[in-house]
């Protein structure tokens, strides 16, 4: 895992930490850009950075939305309204391209407005790079290296959070466990490289079979889980049938006679992590006992 280097220097007169190349901002604490630099250093969450930055940018333009596009995806300010004209600015730091900042505004940006925004960007660069570095490392810690899915550690955290939210809001969700039938023989007969191809293809199927509100995880081996943000059994059945149909019609999986067995259950207000997992696991074993290539619930 790469190291996280937070780029900062000490300002001896205050004992504070400010980004490099911000000497132009430290002449007075009344300087609005100096205040912006201080506020931006309070978070490593890109959405929060954009929200703080947007409050200052709105003194220059009447923006409706603000996004940042990078290799990590798209982040945006809270309650961003992106229906108006986009105005794009590439952000670079020491010849490193960080990404693209996109303002949404119903009014055209003049050259003088653009120049003011570019000066404001100089306060954003180092806090933004720190946040991107932090989130890249965090992603490495919570993602499965082979498939790109969330890993078991992330599943444990997310399941506990979802159970707590269910208790607080009196809302239900579903848990689904899946594994691959006949997967061991793929590794034994055709080798682990082919097994990896099967796992990656199955992971793609799972990602395409769920909604944006659902989250897919790989535990390791051929074991997977999905947290489904829906209190209805019919949703589980639809997702399970969609997955099994995609597996049956997938060339690489059908070539090696690989199918999937699925267990699922609904949460209840008395659930803890162990109880809901155990109940779902029993559904998976029931699917195995009933001949595999099917979905069962407890």
Automatic annotation (TrEMBL):
What cofactor requirement does the entry state? Mg(2+)
What CDD domains does its record include? GGDEF
* Cited InterPro entries: DGC-Regulatory_Protein (IPR052163), GGDEF_dom (IPR000160), Nucleotide_cyclase (IPR029787), Rev_trsase/Diguanyl_cyclase (IPR043128)
SMART domains, sorted: GGDEF
Q: Which GO terms describe its molecular function?
A: catalytic activity
**GGDEF domain sequence ranges:** 171-298
Q: Which NCBIfam families match?
A: GGDEF
The record's listing under PANTHER family reads: DIGUANYLATE CYCLASE DGCT-RELATED
Name used for this protein in its record: GGDEF domain-containing protein
Q: Which organism is it from?
A: Pseudoalteromonas caenipelagi
Its ancestry begins with: Bacteria, Pseudomonadati, Pseudomonadota, Gammaproteobacteria, Alteromonadales
């Amino acid at each position: 895992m790469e190291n996280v280097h937070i780029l900062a220097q000490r300002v001896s007169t205050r004992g504070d930490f400010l980004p490099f190349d911000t000497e132009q901002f430290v002449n007075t604490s009344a300087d609005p850009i100096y205040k912006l630099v201080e506020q931006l250093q309070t978070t490593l969450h890109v959405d929060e950075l954009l929200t703080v930055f947007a409050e200052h940018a709105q003194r220059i333009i009447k923006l409706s939305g603000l996004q940042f596009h990078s290799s990590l995806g798209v982040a945006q300010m809270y309650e961003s309204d992106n229906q108006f004209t986009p105005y794009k600015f590439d952000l670079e730091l020491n010849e490193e391209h960080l990404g693209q900042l996109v303002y949404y505004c119903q009014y055209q940006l003049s050259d003088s407005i653009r120049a003011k925004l570019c000066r404001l960007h100089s306060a954003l660069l180092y806090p933004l790079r720190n946040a991107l570095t932090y989130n890249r490392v965090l992603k490495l810690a919570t993602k499965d290296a082979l498939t790109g899915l969330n890993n078991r550690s992330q599943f444990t955290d997310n399941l506990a959070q979802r159970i707590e939210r269910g208790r607080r809001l009196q809302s239900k969700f579903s848990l689904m466990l899946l594994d691959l039938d006949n997967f061991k023989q793929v590794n034994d007969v055709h080798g682990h490289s082919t097994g990896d191809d099967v796992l990656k293809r199955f992971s793609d199927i799972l990602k395409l079979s769920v909604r944006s509100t659902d989250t897919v995880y790989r535990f390791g081996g051929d074991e997977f889980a999905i947290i489904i943000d829906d209190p209805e059994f019919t949703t589980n059945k639809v997702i399970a049938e969609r997955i099994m149909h995609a597996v049956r019609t997938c060339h690489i999986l059908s070539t090696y006679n690989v199918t999937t067995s699925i267990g699922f259950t609904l949460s209840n207000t008395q659930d803890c992590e162990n109880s809901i997992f155990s109940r779902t696991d029993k559904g998976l074993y029931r699917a195995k006992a009933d001949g595999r290539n099917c979905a069962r619930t407890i």
